[in-house]
Amino acid sequence: MIIKPLIRENICINSHPKGCAQVVRNQIEYVKNTLAGNKEPADIKAPQGTPKLALVVGCSTGYGLASRISAAFGYGATTVGVSFEKAASATKPGTPGWYNNRIFEVEAEKAGLVSVTLDGDAFSDSMKADTAEAIREAARRAGIAPKVDLIVYSLASPVRIDPKNGVMYRSVIKPTGKVYSGKTINMLTAQIREVSVEPASEEEIANTVKVMGGEDWEIWIDALGKQEVLSPTVRTVAYTYIGPELSWDIYKNGTIGRAKEDLERAGRLINQKLAISGGAAWISVNKALVTRSSSIIPIIPFYIACLFKVMKAKGLHEGCIEQIVRLYRDRLYTPEAAQNPLKVIADNEGRIRIDDWEMREDVQRETAAQMAKVTEENISETTDLAGFKHDFMEIHGFDVEGVDYEADVDTLLRDELGFQSGDAADEEIAIGA
Question: What fold, for 12-422?
């Protein structure tokens, strides 16, 4: 099958298997060349305090995938990942995350790393119990104690079924209190248009907090504690975004912002619990990046396209993998911080700021100036719309250097996964078991 991108209103509804595989391998190489000091995992002498057994909840794309790759190939950690993806079939591609997980496991096995990936509803009680068993199994295979010392909570889902009552909650991206109006860009046509979004109801705000807030993070920590699979000095981190004031009406002060406030509330509570035995919890504030969701939030594509133009000119631009390497290397696991979590550099609210380059005064001033200049006639010169589009395509496996998009590709990636069509494992691959 020859696969071309299918895009509707800044949403890509398919993916390219070979492209996704190459993106994962590119990220692995970057980690090896930076965090691992050009060493293979077997040769890494990870400093004391760096992760040996890491759990990533939401491991398949974006910051979650980068977190897992960095822990595994940067420190030689055994990893357990949890995500919910749609598997490929013989006639239809799977989600990008389905391919990312599979290729990560292939590359981890080649490198002698132990990894276990679970597919299912991370909000459910059963998945939390299954994850505790997976931690024990991964530790047994790796010959280490079944005690997780790093938990990354990077879950992104539009819906959540509460295991207590079976109610499904849906999140929305809306302002609160008043109508929001702002510019957005269609990355395919370079059209700029004004969009307006009605404010969320109180029920929608509450539902968004339920889905995207910190309650489930708390439940994960408590559940794994009861299963006795947490290291006494476990560290856990969740990700958020703040951004410039120009985006606050739709983001920081909107429904997403309300959910992120609850995430910070949960982080403080978790930190209090873990600190008793030497553990810690943080919120990491990360930079603006192109994700599968950011491309549809009003003002964000317009802002990112201008931000990238400025940050690339200054040599400050980072993608997911560069951000997480810097988080691990320069914040969580510096020589001092690896020994003492109180040495982790944080702001006055206890948040780790790896959005520091984005939020520099000069970067923000110049980005605002760029935004004021943009018209549909000069958009190619005044923004990095091309870079925005590339990043968007790349996370779906398209526009990846070295991939032949005119070639026939097996949607099940049987050649990459070591199987041939008709193998007994073929059906297992197809259902994502």
Answer: Rossmann fold (3.40.50)
pTM check: above 0.85: yes
- Sort 277 into a burial class: Cβ within 10 Å, 0-12 / 13-18 / 19+: exposed
Q: Which residue in the list 251, 303, 328, 333 is annotated as catalytic? A: 251
- Where are the chain's structural domains? 12-422
Give the CB-side neighbour count of residue 136, counting CA atoms within 13 A: 9
Which residue is listed with tokens 């302002």?
Answer: 175
- Kindly give the residue spans of alpha helices, DSSP state H, lying in 93-234: 96-110, 125-142, 202-212, 215-226
Closest CA relative to residue 354, chosen from 291, 286, 307:
286
CA nearest 416: which of 22, 88, 64?
A: 22
Cα dist. 383→28, 291, 377 in Å? 29, 18, 11
**Is 251 designated active site?**
yes
Q: Over the stretch 398-422, which tens digit does the pLDDT of each residue have?
A: 999 999 999 999 999 998 886 544 4
Beta-carbon contacts of 431 under 8 Å, excluding residues fewer than 6 positions away, are: 87
Q: H helices of 177-214, where?
A: 202-212
Segment 358-410, tens digit of pLDDT: 999 999 999 999 999 999 999 999 999 999 999 999 999 999 999 999 999 99
Question: What's the number of CA atoms in the CB half-sphere (13 Å) around residue 167?
Answer: 7
